[in-house]
Every structure is written in C-alpha cells, then in structure tokens.
Amino acid sequence: MNIKNVKIIQHIMKVILIPLVLMINPVYADDFPIGTWQGEMSVGGNKIPLIFHISLNNDNQPKAVMDSPAQGAKDIPVKKVSVDGNKVTLEVAVANATFEGMLEKNSTMIKGNWQQSGQTFPLILVKMSDDITGLWRGKLQGASTELSIEISMNSKNETIAFLSPNGGISKVVVAALKTKQGQLSFEVPAEGVSYMGRYNKEAGHISGTFSQGEREFTLNFLKVVGEEAKQVKLNRPQHPVKPYRYNVKEVIFQNKQAGIELAGTLTTPKGTDSYPAVVLISGSGPQDRDQTFMGHKTFLVLADHLTKSGIAVLRFDDRGFAKSTGDFASASSVDFASDVNAAVQFLKQQANIDKTNIGLIGHSEGGLIAPMVASQSKDIAFITLMAGPGISGNEIAIAQIKTILSVNGLSEPAAEAGSNITRQLNLTVKHNKQAKNLASQLTTTYQQAWLALPKDIQAELKQVGGGKISQARINSLSSPWSRYFLSHQPKEYIAKLLIPVMALHGNKDVQMSASTNLQAIKQALKPSKHNLIIEMAGLNHLFQTANTGFMSEYATLSETIAPEVLKKITQWILKVTDK
C-alpha cells in the first residue's frame, strides 16, 4: 500500500466519526427508500464498511444515522437526507467528501462512488431485507427481568448481537444468531438460553419466546431510537487498568490427551524468585479466561490481586471457546479436569514458578473440578473452592429450581411441585444410560408429572412458563455434561484430599446454598489445621456484596469481588505456602 492511500484511509477513518452533513434539495417521505443500507469501500486493500439506517421522524420526513463497524461507532447522526429522482447524493462537508449514486428501480441497490481528496472509491449500498439492526428492549412477561439486544454488523459485514440484562449495562455475546426471512433467533449457551421471534417491520417490534431451562416466557422487543438508544456505561472500578505492575504473558499449551490447544494468560510477579502459583478454573458454561459474565471479569480481578501479592496465576479460555480449540458441547467435567491437568503441567515448565506450591482455585463448577484434579495428582499443593458444591449435581439442580420458583413469587407448594418435576426428569436421565430415545422419555416424564398436579398449582407454574418441557431443556439434560453432573458426588473426591483446602461461600448465594454445601464439604474433609471453611455474610454466588443475591442483580452491582474475599484468599495461600 502506498503512503498516499494510507493517508486517505487515516483521513476517512477520522472523519467517519464526525456527524454527516447531507446536502441536497428538500424531499418527500415517499421519495426515499426507508430501511437499512450497507456497503463497503475498498481503499488500498483495506475494507471500510458503512451502514445507513433511514426512517421517518415525527413530521413524516426522512432521517438517518450511520454506523461504522470498523471503529465500533454507531448512530452517527445524518443531518439531511434527500433524493433527486433516482440520484442519491450524500455530502460530508467537514471531510470535503461526497457520495453520489443511482438508486435502481427495484430499490435494493444504490451504485455510486465516494469522492475525497481527489480520489474516487466505488461504493455500492445494498438494502438489507430486514431492518433489524439496532437496539431493542423488552421485558419477560410475568417476571421482573428486562432485556435488551443490540444487533449490528462487524467489520466483516457479519451480523452480530449482544444480549444485555437489566437496562443494558452489561453485554453477553449471543450464539447461533439468525436474522433472515423476518425471523430472529439466538442462543446464550453459558446460561442455557434460547430465543425464537418474528420481526414485524410495520409494527416495529419483535415478538417471540424466551426459554431458559424448563421456563418459557413471552418476550417482545421494541426498537429503541434516539437518545434512549445510548448504552449505559459500565462501572467496573475493580477491573485493572494497564500498565500492570507485574509480568503478563499470552500463552498456548497442549492437552495432548484430548488433542486440543488451550489459550490463556500467565501473570507473574516481577522479580527473580520462585513464586507459588495457581490455576483458575471457571464455572459452568463456556467461559473465557477472565470468566466474563454480566459485564464483570471475575478472574481478571482475582488474578490481578493475587499476582500483585506475589502469587503467579494461569487462567485460560475453556475448550472450544474464545481462542481455545476443542468442542465444548461434547465435554463433561471429566474433560475439563483433563484441561486443568494440562494447565498444571504447563505451569510446572515455566520459569520463576515454585513447582512444590502449585494450587487450584475453582469457582462454582470449578470448585467441583478442583478436588477431582487434586485427588488424582501429586502436583497440587492446595485448593480453594469458591462457591464449590459439596452435594451431588442432582441435589443442586433440584434445590436451584425450587429457589428460582420461590424468587419469582410462587407459593411454597408450587415451588416444591416444580422442583419435583426436576427430580423426576433427572431420574429419567440417570436411568437412561445410553441417551437413546431420551428426548421422548423426558417429554413423557414431564407430561405425566404435569398432569398429576392440581389445577391451582398448574396455574401458578404456567406464570413462569410451566406446562411443557422446552427443547432447550431437553438439549441441556441430554448433554454429556448434564449426564455426568447429575451423578457426580463431590464428597468422593474431597474425602481423598490430604492437602490444605479453603472453601468459601456467600450466604446470599441463591444458586447454591452456602450452609448445605459448606457443611457437606466440611464433613467430607479429613481434619487439618490448614483447612479453612468460611460462610461470608452478604455475598452472592459471584462473591459480590449483594442486596438480594438474585442473578438479576449481578449486572447492576459495580463490585466484581468483595475486597474481603480477595484478602482472605491471598492471605491463606501465602500462609499455606509459607510465603
């Protein structure tokens, strides 16, 4: 690429973020094609995508905004929109740039050129079949949860979307996104969420069904425009800011047994000593190395605090997620344990690591995996369990659904009935060893359990999506992960441990009972002066200082991890490693 082209690209990239001024003659609303138009300029071998959203204002006059995906810029205001016959002219006065194109008769393409600084670049704008990009908001019917979905185009002209709970202050990337033929569907695998909706262009809304586990809710999205479309800025004061006060190294290591590569980050204190080290193990669902959830980067904050305190930390993306290879969907906790083993072996080969003091810190399901690894390896010197289970997956699942139903305002009998359905479904999974015809068996089990309920209990459960088992729940229960989790008994592994164990739990954790699980862990452990079991007041499942402990609250809290938790974990590790 020559220097002249580089300067043009730089100039375009700068001015593209400045509001556009479109100079043309006055227009009539029916003269301009309403909708979303996208195109891409080729400048010196670089692709610069542009997207224009054209609609009507309150005076029935055209208005427009523009997106520049390459910069992550959205809703750049367009001051004037006009068409002279089938000729479209867009002038960016501040950049001395002009687009001139011809609107084809079928109104699906505008062919023209972008002119700037004496150079001309072909630019073709194509009308998207469904004007579905933008910010949409809705509320689950019969529940207090509000959701927004932000749909846009990335630099490769691919449709992408982020789902945000509770006012849009955090973002979770969605998977399996489809926006064709008037339909919208997506999944959030980490939370067992799926959505199927239909886009009504005339009505300006998306109507559909939101599913999570056995629950199904009506969820209709309305498009948000103007000032309301501005996202609330995340307030995450504990997220560390570069430059860091320690060494940071991006790493890739092999799980040869599985034939996969795992990508992660190794942080080590500055100095030449040998430091104790830990591997961080994430909770259920596909997680990146920071365990990013609801806008919080739990493992980034934890690793930062530990490393600044003299403890090396290796954290990595789950197999099949982010930059790690492999297949997450077909894996169970046993497979994830083998990934942790591979991480430990990699850590042992690194400089400045005290190979006699390598430990594990597992959160949630990670607290299930840590004892599995430690009970079968002589390389582990200690483990910390953050909200780790002490009872079977089956018991946890039954307790969780009862808590969720109670939180949603159902009576004790209705919550108990819902948890009993879960119990019967779990038994069906456990008794079906080969997963053959499991989907039909689960459907039959659910229907029989449902029909046995009194009408008043059915009426209550219907308020939260009861009445039929969703496909998302069938898929979840049929997965290798669920089949293993439901049968797993943590005490069998915890009882074998001869190393120091720290177990923490927040008493406002509504996903996993603190008292029940800590008591089970304590009973399973061999007595040791080095063990530490702590139930911490006022903390939720993520170890945030919470008001209710409900999952819907996670994103609204600015705290990522309570400072007291960071302090206790660090002090305990330094004590048991004599540092």
Concise account of the structure shown:
With 579 residues, the protein is an alpha+beta fold. It contains 13 helices and 28 strands. Strand 8 and strand 9 form a beta hairpin.
Overview of the molecule:
- The protein has 579 residues and is an alpha+beta fold.
- It has four domains: 3-127, Lipocalin, CATH 2.40.128; 134-229, Lipocalin (Beta Barrel), CATH 2.40.128; 247-392 and 489-576, Rossmann fold, CATH 3.40.50; 393-486, no CATH class.
- Helix content is 26%, strand content 32%.
- The strands form four sheets. The chain has a nine-stranded antiparallel β-sheet, with helices on one face. The protein has a nine-stranded antiparallel β-sheet with strand order 13-12-11-10-18-17-16-15-14, with no helix packed on it. Strands 19-20-24-21-25-26-27-28 form an eight-stranded mixed β-sheet, with helices on both faces.
- The longest helix has 20 residues, at 412-431.
- The chain is globular and about 85 Å long.
- Residues 1-31 have low confidence and may be disordered.
